[in-house]
Amino acid sequence: MARKKSNKTNKSAIKVARRLLERGLEHTCRHTPLHTTRSRLCRIEWHLRKVLETLGYNKGDEVYQRTPKRVAKAYILELFSGLDYGRFPRCSKFPIIIGINTRRRIRDIPFTSMCEHHLLPFTGTITIGYKPRKYVIGLSKIPRVAQFFACRPQMQERLTCQILEALRAITHSKEAGIKIDAQHTCVCARGIKSDNVTTTYQLKHLSPNGLAMLFDK
């Protein structure tokens, strides 16, 4: 399903983008599109037709006629929509209640991202935990933030750091951690063709109790 059209960049998005840039974790590409969505769709579609021509497809073939448009829409509206901060989820914050300052965890958030080296998918699950300091956000917002950064050409290591730093920027949390388990198509479908799972971690000031919260079943 296509995502909503870009809206005016919200305050959380600006704060997150600034934090990632300061820490050298941001993608180097332009995050404010130079062209309209329609223009970008047409440009990508045109280039994909050239790729198919180079591969030997006949211009009258159904694949040549329809596939470039489908792929262009998937890139702009879904798979790479996280490159546009106008699509960053709105994260309403709520002050924590005095005396209620428990850690929060969401386990096994499913995700799909695209390897930036081969533009092939990698899929897996994300577990995120943090201890609120000033604010909490709705539990549904955490998977939305994770999905936003997954919808980019990515490296798993960068994805891990971006999600965690975004969460810390929004909630002002110091104690936080993230674990991502993923299987990479660029490894299992080509090269050595191994189906091993890659795990990455990023931890910030986690106490023993915080580590247990994040990794215990």
Lay out the secondary structure.
Layout: H1 11-22, H2 37-55, H3 62-79, E1 93-95, E2 104-115, E3 121-130, E4 135-137, H4 141-150, E5 153-154, H5 156-171, E6 176-184, H6 185-188, E7 197-204, H7 208-215
Parallel strand pairs: 2-5
Antiparallel strand pairs: 1-4, 2-3, 3-6, 6-7
Helix pairs in contact: 1-5, 2-3, 4-5
Describe the overall structure.
- By secondary structure, the chain is of the alpha+beta class.
- It has helices at residues 11-22, 37-55, 62-79, 141-150, 156-171, 185-188, 208-215, and strands spanning 93-95, 104-115, 121-130, 135-137, 153-154, 176-184, 197-204.
- The protein is built from seven helices and seven strands; from the N terminus they run H-H-H-E-E-E-E-H-E-H-E-H-E-H.
- It has a five-stranded mixed sheet with strand order 5-2-3-6-7.
- It is globular, with a radius of gyration of 19 Å.
- InterPro entries: GTP-CH-I_C/QueF, GTP-CH-I_N, GTP_CycHdrlase_I, GTP_CycHdrlase_I_CS, GTP_CycHdrlase_I_dom.
- Pathway: Cofactor biosynthesis; 7,8-dihydroneopterin triphosphate biosynthesis; 7,8-dihydroneopterin triphosphate from GTP: step 1/1.
- Belongs to the GTP cyclohydrolase I family.
